[in-house]
Amino acid sequence: MTEMVRKPFSFNRVLIYTVLLTAAAVYLVPLVVMLLTSFKTLGDISSGNLMALPTHWTMHAWHKAWSTACTGVSCEGVHHFFWNSFKMAIPAVLISTGIGAFNGYVFSKWRFRGSDLIFSMMLFGCFIPFQVILLPMAATLGKMGLANTTAGLVVVHVTYGVAFTTLFFRNYYVGVPDALVKAARLDGAGFFTIFFRIMLPMSVPIFMVCIIWQFTQIWNDFLFGVVFASGDSQPITVGLNNLVNTGTGVKEYNVNMAAALIAALPTLVVYVLAGKYFIRGLTAGSVKG
Amino acid sequence: MASVTLRNVCKSFSGVEVTRNVNIDIEDGEFVVFVGPSGCGKSTLLRMIAGLEDITDGELYIDNDKVNDKPPMDREVGMVFQSYALYPHMNVAENMAFGLKLAKTHKPEIDRRVTAAAHTLQLDRLLERKPKDLSGGQRQRVAIGRTMVREPKVFLFDEPLSNLDASLRVQMRIEISKLHKRLAATMIYVTHDQVEAMTMADKIVALDQGTVAQIGRPLELYHYPATRFVAGFIGSPQMNFINGRTQSASSQNVTVTLPGGIHITLPVNGSALKPEEPVTLGVRPEHFVSADEAEIVLNGTINVVERLGYQTLAHIDVEGIASTLTLRTDGSNPVQEGQAIALGIQARSCHLFRENGEACPRLYHEPCVDF
């Protein structure tokens, strides 16, 4: 071991870093191209090289993408779609995560006859392709009076999300010692008290995992957004699609790139803010350490 | 404080019986240890008393109340878990106060009790710490403190020391014994460690495959085991067992023929025995004597010697006896491997077991049993 510590520049080290850096660069190139292009003028794009720096840095494309670009008949940019996505994603993420936490608690700590079967059936929800449920879901939303509304999209995403969040929380809570629940019962805590006062405060890491996962899924969804929403309830993914496909002659690559970056930004922010909780284990110390 | 009474308590898990007809009377203020090998149902029994496990059949009384159907909190029992089960997101004081808060106890009263318990358990300076910042012994004390503040009628301990290292275990053993004397509380303690059972208990309940094998004071179990299971479980190293046959038996004594045709007459009640019945003679490793004090002598060869300093264990092969016999002798004994040795056996310190494991009651009165 000490031998390895003394020789930091061994051949293997160099090889490993070379491979890693190359891979990272390959993955970063598209992002770099997008960023550079979004700050270029149209003239710059048509005359210059894809990888070249803008000769004249401008925020014009970002402004246009946000507030004046045409998305079909209206020309108001993507900002409406952007807020629609938030109106859909935030409730959907919170509701599906909340239900998942509760389900996971029951499936791990209050097993009942048949609970494993029900859990397996819920897991099945993770494997049902989106396309299969389009028609039945459309009919259901219609009957519920939620067709073409943001609330309808929230219902769809919660329904799909609960399968995943239940799985996440159940597997996390299985790792929480049963003795904790028993001790709480002896302390006089009931079903809900244990959930809210013991389990939830210990669940920060898995909450973060769920929120990142669900937010990314829901924010990036295009299919449900394009099928179940219309007009003023459409999410950003649909808005982006409309913007790119609304052509008036010249392709405005800079505007397209800026709009795509706007669409991608929230998921990046969520990951940066919540990512550190991915690795945190809060139960450490409850059992012998 | 309270008495605990179990009447014909049975437990089955999906049709498989794990506890059969358990009858135990625990008096107010008694320290009772449930002991047995893993899987004997001792923890299940404790969880039934706590109310964490349903009682399939039979009755459980705390004082004079039948508590079979009462939820854990209404039984006024406190339990200390093997894994401590401290709430990881609460500090020591919050861990101890949690039960009282749920019971809507007044804040000054909560503070008073937490401070008192912390003082008793020397946790005063750790009240702000989180469980993950405590050592094993400290966590154990917090777990006990959490139980103490609720002033339960009965304390239940589920193998509380088995996660601690050896020296800390000895220390905590003494602390729990002291605590029992100070609180004069009824305590039920589950362990698989016979040393904990022998040292701490007022009364030991030895469990064997879900049934009570014997209930008694520690030295009663040591000197007068009721079954071969108890004889083998209590005492370390284990009692030596030698197969033989009865020659004659009466209520006053039994004469047994051992391998090699040696006869020994034991002062045990053999009224249940028939002549020529296969029996097992039991001799504890510490009860072998020198040839001149003995009624009979077995000649063997020393196979392995284990020197522990304060004692030496010699494992001896005797012709005609299948199992290796163990001799416990003092640490300065110069016995060597390969050496021939004469094992003297005194009839009065022998135990006799029938084929079904039942012991023939010994008639010799051990003076120390009344201590």
- Oligomer state equals heterodimer
Rg of chain B computed from alpha carbons, rounded to a whole number of angstroms: 24 Å
Question: What is the H-and-E element order of chain A?
Answer: HHHHHHHHHHHHHH
CATH class term of the largest domain in chain B? Alpha Beta
Poorly predicted sequence stretches spanning 5 or more consecutive residues of chain B: none
Cross-sheet strand order for the largest sheet of chain B? 6-7-8-3-9-10
Spans of chain A of 5+ residues with little confidence (pLDDT < 50)?
A: 281-289
Largest sheet features of chain A = none
Number of domain modules of chain B = 2
Computed CA radius of gyration of chain A, to the nearest angstrom? 24 Å
Please explain how this structure is put together.
The complex is a heterodimer of chains A (289) and B (371). Chain A has 289 residues and is mainly α. Chain A folds into two domains: 64 residues, no CATH class; 201 residues, MetI-like (MetI-like fold). In chain A, helix 4 packs across helix 14, helix 5 crosses helix 11 and helix 13 runs antiparallel to helix 14. The longest helix of chain A is centred in the first third of the chain and has 31 residues. Chain A starts with a helix and ends in a 15-residue tail after the last helix. Chain B folds into two domains: 227 residues, Rossmann fold, CATH 3.40.50; 91 residues, OB fold (Dihydrolipoamide Acetyltransferase, E2P) (Beta Barrel). Chain B is elongated. Chain B has eight helices and 21 strands. The mean pLDDT of chain B is 92. In chain B, strand 17 and strand 18 form a beta hairpin. Chain B has 371 residues and is an alpha+beta fold. The chains are: A mainly alpha (289), B alpha+beta (371). Chains A and B meet through helix 9 and helix 10 of A and strand 6, helix 2 and helix 4 of B.
